[in-house]
Design a protein that fits this description.
The chain has 349 residues and is of the alpha/beta class. The protein has twelve helices and 13 strands. Helix 7 links the parallel strand 5 and strand 6. It binds NADPH dihydro-nicotinamide-adenine-dinucleotide phosphate (NDP) and N-acetyl-L-glutamyl 5-phosphate. Its EC number is 1.2.1.38.
């Protein structure tokens, strides 16, 4: 058998990094050769995360681009906003291929990044090198890429549900409203006031209404699909569950199209793609039905009284919303089947 591709993970002790380790452990063509930590180098990762005992026995490495290059060919950066903006250029200069899970390279417009992320943007020279890749929408461009920017979790759930209808001109893009609910692992592993148990348990709240950093990313892709500038209303919510995003999208239908027509349109659009499943009419998706998997399940309801379509999508934020999608992008980058190492049946119940 030919040698496996060597990959490294920066941010391996965070939720996205730990999920990369879980998923890549059964990837047939990939070997994790370095797990990296900015705060705990030298420590065995399994000591911190005992669920990795006998699975990932390596010691955590330093964040050292040359050292990473000595061990790996591809590196995932699963780091907080602002970190990859500085680190990815060093990794690229060291000769590594990079897949960044953060928002640092998703927006080409640096002023837009500064406005929504409130961080210093990446150097434009490196921004231009990044390919923003949502596999089912523009994944055909990923093969041979050296630097991929992975989409956001809310963004993935919203765009997979909206792009086919926008591209077909079946909905009025100016009427789109996106209402998303996320499990708390979406906020990462770090403790914060808003995410600890007694604040979260038995609670349900909206946050960053029309101010979430995913707004410009959603609008960037919808505008391209529509061929005109699209602005949207986006409200994220935090739900007291660990994993999962459910997005409900509303829009006014243009022309005569009912739910059955939408089902047919989406089936055609996603034909041959492994990870988008279109539901039968009346079978609404639940987050549990994609838990631990790379699937995005989508359903439709058309209301004749209002002329609006309601589109509901579910994903696991840590898989299709982050690490699974990053591996799907790695597969496409390498020219492999996009589903390699990702064909998990959702965990149920
Ligand atoms: N959680 C989710 O559902 C999703 C997350 N994302 C994005 O992916 C990225 C990672 O998210 P997530 O794993 O949840 O976040 P976490 O906060 O759980 O983990 C981030 C990790 O980054 C490491 N880190 C922090 N600062 C640095 C630094 N200066 N240099 C190198 N490493 C650093 C930390 O580990 P250490 O101290 O060991 O270095 C930490 O464990 C974020 O940008 C997030 O927005 C995107 C989609 C979904
Ligand atoms: C529940 C929760 O807090 N979710 C995170 C989404 C994290 C994410 O996807 O981060 P990027 O900015 O890298 O896209 C949030 O709302 O900020």
């Amino acid at each position: 058998m030919s040698e496996k591709l060597k990959v490294a993970i920066v941010g391996s002790t965070g939720y996205g990094g730990i999920e990369l380790i879980r998923l890549l452990a059964s990837h047939p063509l990939v070997e994790i050769t370095s797990v990296i930590s900015s705060s705990s180098a030298g420590m065995p990762i399994a000591e911190w995360f005992p669920h990795l005992t006998d699975i990932q026995t390596a010691l955590l490495d330093d964040v050292d681009p040359q050292g990473i290059k000595a061990k790996a060919d591809v590196v995932f950066t699963a780091t907080p906003a602002g970190v990859a903006a500085k680190l990815a250029p060093q990794l690229l200069d060291a000769g590594l291929k990079v897949i960044d899970l953060s928002g640092d390279f998703r927006l080409q417009d640096t002023a837009l990044y500064e406005k929504w992320y409130k961080k210093t943007p990446a150097d434009e020279q490196y921004l231009k090198q990044a390919l923003y890749a949502l596999p089912e929408i523009n994944g055909d461009k990923a093969q041979g890429a050296s630097f991929i920017s992975n989409p956001g979790c809310f963004v993935t759930s919203a765009l997979l549900g909206l792009v086919p209808a926008v591209k077909a001109g079946w909905i009025d893009p100016s009427t789109i409203i996106i209402d998303s609910k996320s499990g708390v692992s979406g906020a990462g592993r770090g403790a914060s006031l808003g995410t600890h148990y007694s604040e979260l348990n038995e609670n349900f709240k909206a946050y960053k209404v029309n101010q979430h950093q995913h707004v410009p990313e959603i609008e960037m892709v919808l505008s391209e699909a529509a061929g005109q500038e699209v602005v949207t209303t986006f409200t994220p919510h935090l739900v007291p569950m660990t994993r999962g995003i459910l997005s409900t999208m509303y829009a006014t239908v243009k022309g005569e199209h009912n739910a059955a027509d939408f089902i047919e349109l989406y089936k055609q659009f996603y034909e041959g793609r492994q990870f988008v499943r279109i539901r039968k009419e009346g079978v609404l998706p639940q987050t549990k039905e994609v838990w631990g998997s790379n699937y995005c399940d989508i359903a439709f309801n058309y209301d004749e009284r209002t002329g609006r379509i309601t589109i509901i999508s579910v994903i696991d934020n840590l898989v299709k919303g982050a690490s699974g999608q990053a591996i799907q992008n790695l597969n496409l980058m390498m020219g492999w089947d996009e589903g390699l190492g990702l064909q998990f049946v959702p965990v149920y119940p």
